[in-house]
Design goal:
148 residues; alpha+beta; three-stranded antiparallel sheet; two-stranded antiparallel sheet; 3 helices
């Protein structure tokens, strides 16, 4: 799994000798992924994806029941006219239940990540969910959160 975060090299140039003005130029290396950005972006992108999924499912349910009704959304906040708020809340609860209870994708995602950690050569104790990482010639142990 790769997100499209590529390495970027930056350089500054002074185009004019008589001015202190600099121009920053960035060149994207299309052959190398930026590993740090990959790691930092994973969780926010996953949460954004889950929010988008819940929005799509909620809108689909709501529009099937109320064909010409107002449905408002900003990010993960939803609204409608006062007479339909109770129905919207019930539908939102059912969407969350469907999304987070029935599909074992979180378990599959967790297993994928554990397998990936082992594949990269890290020492992983699955029983204690502890991974051994060497940073600056020092061994550090990190405990992974259990999703259950």
């Amino acid at each position: 799994m790769k997100q499209s975060y590529l390495e970027v090299e930056s350089t500054s140039i002074r185009p004019f000798v008589y001015k202190d003005t600099k121009i920053n130029i960035q060149v994207v290396n299309k052959d190398k992924y930026d590993k740090l950005k990959q790691v930092r972006a994973l969780m926010p992108n996953l949460i954004h994806s889950l929010d988008a999924t819940s929005l799509s499912l909620l809108y689909d349910k709501f529009s099937n029941v109320y064909k010409d009704s107002q449905f408002l959304s900003i990010h993960d906040c939803f609204a409608t006219t006062v007479d339909k708020v109770a129905t919207l809340k019930t539908m939102l609860s059912s969407v969350y239940m469907e999304l987070y209870s029935n599909d074992p994708y979180l378990d599959q995602f967790d297993k994928y990540l554990l397998n990936y950690i082992e594949k990269t050569g890290r020492v992983l104790d699955r029983n204690t969910r502890t991974v051994e990482i060497i940073i600056n010639n020092r061994v550090k142990y990190y405990e992974l959160i259990d999703i259950e």
